[in-house]
Design goal:
295 residues; 3 domains; 9 helices; 6 strands; two-stranded antiparallel ribbon; alpha+beta; single chain; 4-stranded mixed β-sheet
Length: 295
């Protein structure tokens, strides 16, 4: 199944621990570049979020944003160690008598080590993780639907250009016998003229041997065979129904197809073939541009 690397999805879940909203955005990238932004209270959930996303996304620059609005009815997220805070206050007052300052900043006191501690029983609650997971899975489902829809559009565009490319290849293949014969006749005539100008009579059979060697060098049968093989492999990848990313495989095949069509163009220099070579390369470039967007 073709999926675009560009997409957006959002999921929301509500429960006893409040509301979770998860947004996922992605753009093209050669590899998976995953960024997760969580509220600081839930930072310890990042490995879980990354693991879930990696199971569903293979490539792209993916940003995951998590917003959490705690329920007013839920237990406090943190508790103050009053005994430790009193100890700090007493120590600071003793120090202030020495320094001649009596100002104590409550906000600064609350930042001292051990004064404010997260309520582990709340943050470790399975219900809290379940709420986050539900919103994330919903966002991923929406995200993948959007990527699949875009993938279908990309696939339609690629197949359209691929059909034009194949038409050019078949046209070249159909012209090949006639053009091979014209090439041999033209080469034979050139050799005869060179021999006449030099006053040389070619040895019996030598002309035929030279023509055979020249024909072998200019023959594009192997390139046509390999092109058809690459095109068949390309279509198989396009028709893959599972969720395996195929973008890298398609990109590799485009490179191989480009190599063969370039070699074919260099070997077959007949004027009748040139327009088809140019058209094929133009269509292949359009295919390459579309493939860059496929996961």
């Amino acid at each position: 199944m073709l999926r675009s690397m560009t997409g957006y999805g959002m999921g929301t879940s509500r429960g006893d621990f409040g509301e979770f909203v998860v947004e996922i955005r992605s753009v093209n990238n050669r590899h998976l570049d995953l960024s997760v932004r969580l509220p600081k209270e839930l930072a310890f959930f990042e490995p879980t979020v990354r693991d879930i996303v990696r199971r569903s996304v293979g490539r792209g620059k993916v940003d995951v944003f998590v917003r959490w609005t705690p329920s007013p009815a839920m237990p406090p997220l943190a508790e103050i160690n009053v005994a430790l805070l009193r100890h700090y206050v007493e120590e600071l007052r003793s120090l202030s008598e020495v320094l001649g300052s009596t100002t104590l900043d409550l906000g600064a006191l609350l930042t001292l080590p051990g004064v404010v501690n997260p309520t582990a029983t709340v943050l470790d609650s399975p219900q809290l993780e379940s709420g986050l997971r539900d919103a994330l899975l919903m966002a991923l489902e929406s995200f993948n639907r959007a990527r699949a829809a875009e993938g279908r559009a990309l696939g339609a565009a690629v197949r359209e250009h691929l059909a034009c490319f194949q038409e050019s290849i078949e046209a070249i293949s159909g012209l090949k016998p006639e053009l091979d014969q014209k090439m041999l006749e033209r080469l034979a005539e050139r050799i005869r003229k060179l021999a006449e100008n030099a006053g040389v009579t070619p040895e019996p059979g030598r002309l035929e041997m030279e023509l055979t060697l020249a024909a072998d060098k200019a023959d594009v049968t192997e390139e046509l065979v390999r092109l058809r093989s690459h095109l068949s492999a390309f279509e198989r990848q396009m028709s893959n129904d599972d969720a395996t990313p195929v973008g890298k495989a398609l990109d590799f095949l485009v490179q191989e197809i480009n190599r063969e069509i370039t070699t074919l163009g260099n070997k077959a220099r007949e004027a009748e073939i040139s327009p088809y070579i140019l058209r094929a390369k133009n269509e292949l470039e359009k295919i390459r541009e579309q493939v860059q967007n496929i996961e």
